[in-house]
């Protein structure tokens, strides 16, 4: 068994992911090359490839980092008593990510990459599968009577609505009015409970 990453290795990996995120968010998916990330991070290409052998590994790690950060924010808000008291706060936290325009732009670039690049599409599908798994587990925790299949279906619809609405709520593709936003919140909450 190999030892876990060192703190120095973790810092280097984080710096490489930061560079990839900057490139993806500012220049777009077409500019997210291994060479560009290595240059932006100030390292040799071989150094980057030590941590991320392929661009798909880099993209997968970046998406994993984003999902993990989101889940950590939500975890602090989760009401473990089984009541619905904490659900609106959890929903507000997740919807609040739509106000993070750099994050929405980053995902817009990731979706564009996935439309033309099978390795990127594989990373994106894995990301959304994990996202839906967490939402399904959340539903089952709050509604144990819901079957696993039903929780999974609700979770997938929840993820679809969240991701599509990000374009509108962020202002990238529009700006919903208060009534539309209230309807979205009610629909999403209904999927969770």
Keywords for this entry:
about 190 residues; mainly alpha; Arc Repressor Mutant, subunit A; Tetracycline Repressor, domain 2; 2 domains
Briefly characterize the structure.
The chain has 193 residues and is mostly helical. The chain folds into two domains: 1-53, Arc Repressor Mutant, subunit A; 56-192, Tetracycline Repressor, domain 2 (Orthogonal Bundle), CATH 1.10.357.10. It has helices spanning 7-26, 34-41, 45-51, 55-75, 87-96, 101-116, 118-142, 148-169, 178-192.
Architecture blueprint of SSEs:
Blueprint: H1 7-26, H2 34-41, H3 45-51, H4 55-75, H5 87-96, H6 101-116, H7 118-142, H8 148-169, H9 178-192
Write the CATH architecture name of the largest domain. Answer: Orthogonal Bundle
Tell me the CATH topology of the largest domain: Tetracycline Repressor, domain 2
Rg over C-alpha atoms, rounded to the nearest angstrom? 18 Å
By secondary-structure content and strand pairing, the structural class works out as mainly alpha
The major sheet is characterized as: none
Mean pLDDT reading: 87
At the fourth level of CATH, the homologous superfamily of the largest domain is Tetracycline Repressor, domain 2
Number of DSSP helical runs: 9
The shape, in one word, is globular
Question: How would you characterize the overall build of this protein?
Answer:
This protein is mostly helical. The chain has two domains: 1-53, Arc Repressor Mutant, subunit A, CATH 1.10.10; 56-192, Orthogonal Bundle (Tetracycline Repressor, domain 2), CATH 1.10.357. 75% of the residues lie in helices and 0% in strands. It has helices at residues 7-26, 34-41, 45-51, 55-75, 87-96, 101-116, 118-142, 148-169, 178-192. The longest helix is centred in the C-terminal third of the chain and has 25 residues, at 118-142. The radius of gyration is 18 Å and the shape is globular. The N and C termini lie far apart (43 Å).
